[in-house]
Design a protein that fits this description.
The complex is a heterodimer of chains A (about 425) and B (about 600). With about 425 residues, chain A is mostly helical. Helices cover about 70% and strands about 0% of the residues of chain A. With about 600 residues, chain B is of the alpha+beta class. In chain B, about 35% of the residues lie in helices and about 20% in strands. The termini of chain B are far apart. Classes of the chains: A mainly alpha (about 425), B alpha+beta (about 600).
């Protein structure tokens, strides 16, 4: 009895663990289904076995990580961050593409396996950010205070964007916001921080951009921002509005196409719009109750691209429908993320709490961007879905993160 | 307040949960909308994605002869088609198929041109695959996206060349044809009758294509038949029965001299039923099934003997002496000829008219002749004088009124009208000169500006055999044709001397031009013709009618042999045709020795001819 209790305690939040393990096994089943095509594709047919192997390795790594004290992670944050960033830089030199992202340099080829360093860099960045912002003793009062965490994110994020991997860059943004939020940054300050990005997006319409600028100035007045702060923010917004066009022109053709297609997939149904249209058709034709496990015709007939990686959720939607597929899976993700915020809430240590919430931010971004992409409410960015998409690096990194969360929960969470 | 006070953490967690609920709620709503509310739309799109409608060609109706023998039917054939796709894809597929099907680059180009005309339709590459080709392609199926093979009925003409001009042939509908109102409701890729009976009765024979759906993957590979979607079965074409006697048709094809060009038409007098229609040289209509090879097509088209031309309907020639009956009838109608009285000028091998001497074909001359005897020996001098009695203007107007400038109205898609001037002005319009009275001399003996097809001449003699009236020639049994009757309006007083004349032509050893064509068992009469030809030897004509002794004629045969030189040559084939038909009709054994000449040649006694 005592033994079981101790075991449970050492594993942290068992509900969370069971949810994640269940989701992962369901993921292997879906990867198996993704390989069931009418005209079999040898590259996809057997990957479920590899995924099962990766899951075994990941669970082992998870168990190892839960044995390591949180203080060690705090200590390891700086070296991990340095190594992670260095690996990202190295990837730019020797990296190669894979899957949807053939043209990018996101993977390092280690012979039998491909490793995606950005997945580990995300974890290292979370640790590093937690270490820096965890030391705050009072809420940051000006943008100046935020300069360090912002720079810490911008370096790996910039390297990732050079690969180029827009999706992972979005995850870095999500991490920064999550960490700053949990570290106690006032919302107004965070708004000032992100306002240039909003300005950048709105700059394609002169009217919207003008309204944005007026509201920004009004906000700065009532928020009683420092003068230099206000000037900086307005200047940054104006700069964002100005560089929007050159920035757009500097994007690669496929990136532009993906963004344009996000706005209207029908402009290029055979090319860039193909993914979105076919994914939506797969999900929509799945209906309320689905076509049955392995029986999705969109998938079977190869209309659905990347069905085992980025578009695994479309397979779920097609084969299990809304009530047996997409809704329950969304619910499970909701439960997982809720359990993580619950742990973050119960952890008194700033570093530990920020790490847990950083991981929340990363996973939440993955879920929203990936699932949103399959149904066409997010642009196609090629980032995987945690625990469901096929991919060793990401699964391992996810379980590493889970190990960290569970260790923190076991050590400090009084679960 | 402490930054990580439990209350602060709780507040932040609540904020985070609100964002989480908002994010996942938005996603949940998006999926609810896509999967539950718009399911129908997407289910349709998913079907449209993978299901391709393919036409199921209907089996064409079979064609039978009057005795129920098969002239055209269908056999199962393997057809290979390519699904519609971008030009590059289709060309790549064709190039991969080339070694398997033996496609030449020219053939690929032709197929690509066909694809361009109907880009949305499956492209039929071949309808005539061998079993080996089918299995070779099935093995490579994965590498041949968009290729599908199906069984479809294939047209077969068991008698091939013997019935080619009569039946015509089938082929894929062309762009021009699609645009015509005649083919309203047809779509590209459909097989239609191109010529002959196949074309004329396309609406009867053709049927309506059905539709089936196949499931296709994103790479254009056919994965299987899609059963749940309703298959629309094709409506088979209706069978067609012809008046034609296939045995007679075969017999004609057999006896027709291989090296000669010409035509033989056999018609039933009174009814106008076409018993046989053969044109030589012929071609094998089976070559056209599934798309004719361009090289074969080129050869058929460039052949100087014009095998594709149906000489029975589309070949027109001066009718020569066979037309003399018309000359005589016109004169009698006008009251300028007494059939029992000889002409003023006896035949001395020719006659002077104006500053020209017009020869008779018989240099030694015929002397004084009555009409029946003039017909019997085909005396030109006699008919020159008949022509002069009529006069050019009257001859032309009467001939035109009788219908020699029109077509017979046979149920075939194409038929050449006869050529006959409607008056002296016709010559100026056509050739730029005015005719003199001397022109009537040529016309009176069936030469000059008068061209008639063998079918038209057969119809004329059928009218002679039927009290001056005959229906339009009809090939198919379901064509009524009664409104297209041809009434010459000649009474017995006109017909009797004419029929007596042509009876004398074939009296054995009677001195007529075709005495050697006499038949043992039948009343056989007819008229020879030799039409002058500027391009070489004269064309030989014979138009005759036969029936039981003392009875009415039951078959009229017209024979034309290009460059045949003498009408009596043609008479042999006409007599053999009539004899074969009547022997079979009356249950007598057939024989290859039929005419008097053949009896002599075979050394057989012909006591009946004494």
């Amino acid at each position: 009895m005592i033994l079981i209790q101790r075991l449970r305690a050492s594993l942290g939040d068992t509900t969370l663990l069971l949810l994640v393990l269940g989701l992962s096994l369901f993921g292997v089943a879906m990867v198996y289904s993704a390989g069931q095509l009418d005209v079999p594709d040898p590259a996809v047919q057997w990957v479920w076995k590899k995924q099962l192997l990766f899951l075994g390795v990941s669970v082992f790594v998870f168990l190892v990580v839960t044995r390591i004290q949180v203080r060690w992670f705090e200590w390891a944050a700086v070296p991990a961050y340095v190594i992670g960033t260095a690996l990202l830089a190295l990837t730019l030199v020797i990296g190669r593409g894979y899957g949807t992202a053939q043209g990018t340099k996101s993977w390092i080829d280690l012979g039998p396996i491909l490793v995606q360093p950005s997945q580990f860099a995300i974890l290292a960045t979370i640790l590093m950010l937690a270490r820096v912002t965890g030391n705050w003793r009072e809420p940051p009062r000006s943008l100046w205070t935020l300069i360090t965490p912002v720079m810490l994110v911008l370096v790996p994020m910039g390297l990732v964007m050079l690969q180029p991997d827009l999706g992972t860059a979005m995850v870095f943004t999500a991490i920064l916001l999550a960490v700053l939020y949990w570290a106690g940054t006032p919302l107004g300050l965070m708004f000032m921080l992100v306002s240039p990005v909003v300005g950048l997006l709105l700059s394609f319409n002169a009217g919207l951009f003008s309204i944005h600028m007026v509201l920004l100035v009004v906000f700065l007045y009532f928020y009683r921002a420092y003068l230099w702060e206000g000037v900086t923010v307005v200047a940054a917004n104006l700069a964002a509005g100005t560089i929007a066009l050159p920035l757009w022109n500097s994007l690669a053709g496929y990136q532009k196409a993906r963004l344009l297609v996000f706005l209207d997939p029908s402009i290029d149904p055979r090319g860039a719009g193909w993914h979105v249209i076919q994914s939506r058709v797969a999900i929509g034709s799945g209906g309320p109750f689905g076509k049955g496990f392995t029986l999705g015709s969109q998938k079977r007939l190869a209309f659905l691209p990347e069905q085992h990686t980025d578009f695994i959720f479309s397979v779920i939607g097609e084969e299990f429908g809304f009530f047996f597929g997409t809704f329950p899976v969304l619910l499970v993700f909701g439960l997982i993320l809720w359990r993580i915020t619950r742990i973050a809430e119960r952890v008194p240590d700033p570093f530990a709490g920020i790490v847990v919430f950083g991981i929340f931010g990363a996973w939440f971004a993955h879920v929203v961007v990936n699932i949103g992409m399959t149904v066409g409410i997010m642009p196609i960015t090629g980032i995987p879905l945690p625990f469901l998409s096929y991919g060793g690096s990401f699964l391992l990194a996810s379980y590493l993160a889970l190990g960290l969360v569970q260790r923190i929960a076991a050590e400090q969470g009084r679960m | 307040m402490h930054l990580f006070h439990p209350h602060a953490r709780r507040r932040r967690a609540q904020g985070a949960l609100a964002v989480l609920a908002l994010g996942l709620g938005t996603l949940g709503f998006a999926f609810f909308e896509t999967q539950v509310l718009k399911n129908d739309t997407y289910a349709l799109q998913s079907d449209a994605n993978r299901l391709r409608p393919l036409p199921i060609p209907p089996p064409r109706g079979s064609i039978f002869d009057r005795n129920g023998e098969i002239l055209a039917d269908n056999v199962p054939g393997y057809a290979l088609s390519l699904l519609p796709g971008p030009p590059d894809t289709v060309r790549a597929a064709l190039e991969r198929l080339a070694p398997l099907l033996g496609l030449t680059p020219a053939r690929i180009d032709a197929l690509m041109a066909r694809r361009r005309r109907a880009p949305g339709q499956p492209l039929v590459v071949s309808t005539d695959l061998t079993f080996e080709q089918v299995s070779a392609i099935e093995e490579r199926r994965l590498f041949l996206p968009g290729v599908y093979i199906d069984m479809r009925p294939k047209r077969r003409y068991p008698d091939g060349a013997a019935v080619a001009h009569l039946l015509g042939y089938v082929g894929e509908i062309s762009e021009d044809e699609l645009a015509r109102p005649e083919f309203e409701g047809y779509s590209a890729g459909q097989v239609i009758g191109k010529t002959g009976i196949e074309r004329r009765y396309e609406r009867t024979l053709g049927g309506t294509p059905g539709v089936r759906y196949v499931e296709m993957d994103a790479h254009g590979r056919i994965v299987g038949e899609y059963a749940p979607r309703r298959v629309v079965a094709p409506v088979p074409g209706e069978d067609l029965r012809l008046h034609v006697d296939l045995d007679l048709q075969r017999w004609i094809a057999k006896i027709f001299p291989d090296t000669m060009r010409g035509a033989i038409v056999a018609v039933e007098p009174g009814t106008g039923h076409v018993l046989a229609m053969y044109s030589n040289p012929s071609f094998d209509p089976n070559l056209f099934v599934g798309g004719i090879d361009p090289e074969v097509w080129r050869r058929l088209n460039e052949d100087p003997a014009k095998p594709l031309l149906n000489r029975a309907t589309d070949g027109t020639y001066p009718p020569g002496s066979t037309f003399k009956l018309v000359t005589a009838a016109i004169a009698m109608e006008l009251g300028v000829l007494d059939p029992d009285q000889p002409m003023q000028i006896p035949c001395r091998g020719g006659m002077q008219y104006g500053n020209r001497y017009f020869r008779c074909w018989e240099r030694s001359g015929h002397g004084y002749l009555t009409l029946p005897d003039a017909i019997k020996v085909s005396c030109d001098v006699y008919f020159y004088q008949v022509g002069l009695k009529i006069g050019l203007e009257r001859f032309l107007s009467e001939g035109t009124r009788l219908g020699f400038a029109s077509a017979s109205g046979v149920d075939l898609p194409s038929e050449k009208s006869g050529i006959f001037p409607d008056g002296p002005r016709w010559y100026r319009r056509r050739w730029g000169w005015d005719p003199t009275q001397a022109e009537v001399l040529s016309l009176a003996i069936g030469q000059g500006a008068n061209d008639q097809s063998p079918l038209r001449m057969a119809q004329l003699y059928a009218a002679l055999a039927g009290n001056g009236r005959v229906m339009a020639p009809r090939i198919a049994a379901d064509d009524d044709g009664s409104e297209r009757r041809w009434d010459l309006g000649w009474g017995d007083e006109i017909l009797e001397p004419l029929l007596e004349g042509i009876r004398r032509v074939t009296i054995p050893n009677g001195g007529g031009t075709a005495g050697m064509s006499a038949l043992e068992h039948w009343d056989w009469r007819g008229k020879t013709g030799t039409s002058q030809n500027a391009h070489g030897d004269d064309h030989a004509w014979f138009v005759g009618m036969a029936g039981p002794r003392g009875g009415k004629p039951e078959i009229v045969v017209a024979v034309l042999l290009e460059f045949g030189q003498h009408g009596w040559v043609a008479a042999q084939y006409a007599a053999k045709t009539a004899d074969y038909y009547l022997r079979r009709k009356y249950g007598m054994p057939t024989d290859t020795v039929q005419t008097l000449m053949e009896h002599y040649r075979a050394g057989r006694p012909a006591r009946w001819a004494q």
